[in-house]
Amino acid sequence: MDEFEKKLCDEDLKKKLIGIAMYRTKNLEEANDLVQQTYEKALKNRDSFKGEKIDPWVVTILKNLFIDSTRKKKMEPIDDSTPEPVALGDQEMELLERDAEYCFKQLSTLERNIIVCKRRGETYQELALVWEITAGNARVMYHRAKISFIECLEGEVAYEA
Fold first, then answer.
1. Within 10 Å of residue 49's Cβ, how many Cβ atoms?
2. CATH code of the region 3-75
3. Residues near 37 by Cβ (< 8 Å), separated by ≥ 6?
4. Which of 16, 78, 138, 151 is the most buried (most CB within 10 A)?
5. How far apart are the first and last CA of the chain?
């Protein structure tokens, strides 16, 4: 194993790459695939590496591979193998509504109020006047409330029937 391969196989570098890949993909399997592709491309293009530190070079490869894969996913044409959207039945819709209601109740009173006001079409400036805060603060509060609601919906909802 030469010096390049030793640097490439460094455990700290691997942890760093997996961390970056997880941050970007939000999926462990995709992150591991991305890291594997990064190692393959680094080994294939080892002659183009010039310098002392391999970390920034390999991280750049990972980021570029992620960007390329994201672009490809956006550009994939819809064909016959693409599954059709499935309409929810009454039972699924009822469960979804119960989950949404449960998650909405988990928000603080302020978070619920800001979501309701924005859904009614009120501007951030109007919200800022009502709560005596800045419009930027109102925007941040709304964003955080949405994120909390979405995270609850994406998680396992355990509500009382």
1. 15
2. 1.10.1740
3. 65
4. 138
5. 61
User: Rounded to whole angstroms, how far apart are CA atoms 17 and 35?
Assistant: 6
Domain boundaries, the chain: 3-75, 90-154
155: left (phi over 0), alpha (psi -120 to 50) or beta: beta
What does the pLDDT read at residue 118?
Answer: 87
Give residues with Cβ within 8 angstroms of 102, minimum separation 6: 152, 157, 159
Distance CA 126, CA 92 (A): 37
Query: Would you say the CATH fold of 90-154 matches that of 3-75?
Result: no
Could you give the CA distance from residue 126 to residue 75 in angstroms, rounded to a whole number? 40
Which CATH architecture describes the domain 90-154?
Orthogonal Bundle (1.10)
Give me 52's structure tokens. 């002392």
Alpha carbon distances (Å) from 127 to 25, 56, 133, 137, 140: 34, 44, 8, 10, 12
Residues 155 and 148: their CA atoms lie apart, in Å, by 11
Distance of alpha carbon 68 from alpha carbon 58, whole angstroms: 15
